[in-house]
Every structure is written in structure tokens, then in C-alpha cells.
Amino acid sequence: MALSRSLAENLLQSAARCPERCAIQDGLNGVTYARLLRQAAAIAERLKELGLRAGERVAFIQPNSCEFVAAYYGVLMAGGVAVLLNAVAKARDFSAWLGDCEPAFVFAEPGNGEVAAAMSMLARKPVVLQAGTAEWGAISLHPVGSDDPACILYTSGTTGRPKGIVLSHGNLLSNTAAIVEYLGLTGEDSAVAVLPFYYSYGSSVLHTHLQAGGRLILEKNMVYPHAVVETLAKQRATGFAGVPSTYALLLSRVKLHDYDLSSLRYVTQAGGAMSPALTQRLRHALPRTSIVIMYGQTEATARLTYLPPQRLDDKLGSVGIPVPGVKIETRNEHGEPAGVGEVGDIWACGPNVMLGYWRNDAATREVKRDGWLKTGDMGRLDAEGFLYIVGRRSDMIKAGAHRIHPQDIEEVIAEMPGVQETAVVGMEDEMLGQAIKAFVVAADPTGVTPMRVQAHCRERLASYKVPKSVEIVASLPRTASGKIRRAALTERTQRE
Amino acid sequence: MSIKQQIRQFILANYLFTEDEGKLSDPESLMGSGTVDSTGILELIMFLEEAFGIKIADEEMIPANLDSVLKVVSFVERKRAIR
What's the CA gap between A194 and A248, in Å, rounded? Predict the structure, then answer.
């Protein structure tokens, strides 16, 4: 079979190989590879008829569904750039992202008031479409180059300029192939997907299964962990992808040994450090399943390293070795390669490193140099080249599968009448890894209460960004130069 | 205070951050409306166990028991009746 040059071609090849196999199953709805391809082709045709030109953006504000997948691949077939937005965000985020990437079209669910509100704030209004299940039109792929942009994912919300990570067809294709290779995915595989496709991890689960010709079974979320495990058992799923909090939730609420999970070949974990203790508990709960610990970031498409499951015991705590085609280096403060065991900045190089940030060369130059990506994480490599993460430099809060910039929340709290200033940090949380804590200095203490601050945030921010705890304080700790000492606030939450 | 009032008060204070009774409709899906997420549901269960002296088994954590104020109230009433 000819080498694929894009994800759209991957779908074409899988549809030719196994047309009648189920590609995506969503409850009682399922779609075969042949139908998924025809639906994607119909979307591509429709977009071209409506005037979409190659390189133009098409945004998605959708939860996971068969229609979302068909429309996403339809955009890629038409040569468009798919912008995957966090579907549970609020109008202020949507308007900032849409204003930044200026899409020609937006796929959204009807009746989403936040989308309607965002549209009213935009100067250049995109055409809003609904993803459907039509199956007409010729199957034709717009020719794309490896370095042509395919997809944009936003990492932060409204503070300053939003940062859109631009991934090329080559980025997506190479990282997808690397993951398929190290997980050994085939057409016999079927995974239960709980992670949203608008996150790079969820997206990679989708693309890898469509390349392998496997089946993806959609589960909305982890609110009812039993339902997820029941689906794993009933559907004889071979794979599952989760973040540390997914596994903490499963292990605390579900008696896994009560279910027949004998078909579960592997589970993967990424999206933040999972403690060795939790890894061990997972290993004992699933003795016949391979546990694959992984590390990556959206700027690297999804995946940078993985720990081969047979090395889990002797390399416990490591995130493993680079995925095929990727190089990892640790560098000291002078930019020179760090020695074995020496902690340094983690840099990565490979065909998965993003093109850059959307229309933001200055931000791109900060992290991308000579083809190498500065991850912002600190780590050390052992003598065998296994990577251990020792810390993150940035202030980003990791709560469950979400990445949250404290500034996004601080900006919203600062808009509240009676608030003088505020600082937001992550506090340790048994289930989520981190939860959000806001410290607020009130100019008028009578009007500013923790509950009012939370209510104010809930109106304006996605629910996962609402602080779990708010403390009204007299002042914030500062450095001599007047900067807020975030580290001191984080330490304070740890002492509590 | 009735079971329903206690449950409503907990949800209003902890997920909607308000005392405005009009913000919470009894039949509305708590998950569908984005009121409760996967960690929120665990907090709700802890509250129900403490406030009503019941023990909720893992397999009872299903939408039929927990996805609206009305469903939660009827679930708690059933649990208390068989104590």
C-alpha cells in the first residue's frame, strides 16, 4: 500500500482495507469506515461549495461524536485547517479564540448560547454549520504538503493574546504513526475514548485508531466510572486512555476485579505525572494488562516519550524513551547538554514538533530554536536514556485532564467589583492532582465573599476553571521588585 | 428541613455558588447542564452519605439515581426506607 501523506489519506486507506468494520461507536449509533469516509467526503464537498479555500480555518465547538469525526476529517480532506476548541468553554474564550484564528466556518451544536454570545462579539462573523450524517459527493482529497497546517489547538484562554498551536499534516501523521507502532495497534483493537478530541491526547487516540483500522467506542466522560468499566467489559475493548485522575477515580470507585477485562490488552497514561504508588495500584488491579506511561505536550502534537511496559518495574517513575523519530535532550542553564542524571531543561526534536504558534512569531521563537522545542519541563536522563520529569517551570495548573493558566482566572476575578487584586495557584488534590485556589484581596470586604467570587467565575469561565477554594486575604506576598510570589502562596496551600 | 431542601441547598451552595433558588430546576440533568462533573459527583455522594446516614455502593453511582434533584431525592428516600 502506498505511503500515506495525511490523516485524510489514512482514513481513505483504512476504508479501502476494511470498509465494513465499525470505526466509531457512540452508544447505539455506529459508523463503518466506508460510511465515515463518505460522510467526511460530503462535508468536504459542502465546504468547498460554500467557498472554503485551502488553508482557511474551520472551527469546531463540539463534544465527541461520530459527526464531529466525519466533519473533522472532511475539513482535512478539503485542505482546510481544523481548529478544535474546548466545547465547554464560555463566550469570552470562544470570542477570543475565534477572533484570533478568524475561521470561515464554525461547526457547533444548535442552541449553544455561549457560541451565540461569542458570535455577537466578533467583527468578522464566520458561517455557523451543523455537523450531519449526509453521505454524498465524490471522494477527493485536496493535495497537501507535509508542512501545510492541518490543525490548531489553543492552550490558553483570554489573557493577552491566545496561543494557538499550529500542527502540520506531517506533525499529525508522524506522531500518529509513532504511537500506532509502539502500542502495536491493529484493526483488531478497540478502545474506549473518554478524553475529548479537542485535547491533543484525545485527538491522538482518535487518529491512531483510524490509521490502524480499529474501533473507537465513545463514552461521554468519567462522571459515572461504572458505566465506563461496563463498556470496557461489554465491548471487549482492548485499550483505554486516561490521565492520572481517571485512574484514581477508577481505582477508588470501581471494583475492577468484578468485571471481565480479559480482553483489555493495554491502558495508557499521559497528561501529568502519575505517582508510582498509583501506578502500582493500577498494576495490581489489572495484572494481565500492559500499562504504558507516556509524556508529551500539544506543541509536540501529542507524544514525546513512552515507557515500554516491560520496563515499568525497573524504571518506575520514568516517562520512558523517545517515541520513534523523536530525540530528547536535557540541557543545563548554559544551554549545554546535561550529564547523565543531571537535571536540566527538556528539549525535543522530531517531525512532531509544531510549526509554531498561530500568527505569533515572538512566542514561537521563545520555545523553538534550530528545530528543537523547549518543553518548559525539567528532567534528567539516566544512563540508558530513560527520562524522569522532575518539575514544571510554568505556573500552569493541571487539574484532571485540563491545563489551566492561572492568569485566565485572575483576569476574570479582577473584573469583579470590590476586588483589589488576586492570585491563583494550584493546590494538591487527591483526585485531580491539582485543584484551583484563589487568593483575593478585597477593597470592599463586605461585598466580596468566597461564594460570590465562585459565582462570578462560574458565569464567565468553564466550570473546570472555577476555583474550588477562595480565600480572602489582607495582602499578597511580593518580591522586592513588587511581583507576586506565587511560590509562597503554593507553599501556603501545601501547609494547610 | 426536607430531604429535597437539603439536597437543593447543597447543590446551590457547592456547584452553583448561589442562594438563588431559581437557579436550580428539580428535573434538570445535573450532568447535562454542566452543574456536576466527575469530581463533583463524588462530593455529592459524600454529602448524601453523611447527611442522610446511608451508604452508597459503587454500583449505585448511575445516572438513574443521581442525575437530577428529583432522582437524588427519590434515591435517598428508597435507601432510607430499606435501612
Answer: 15
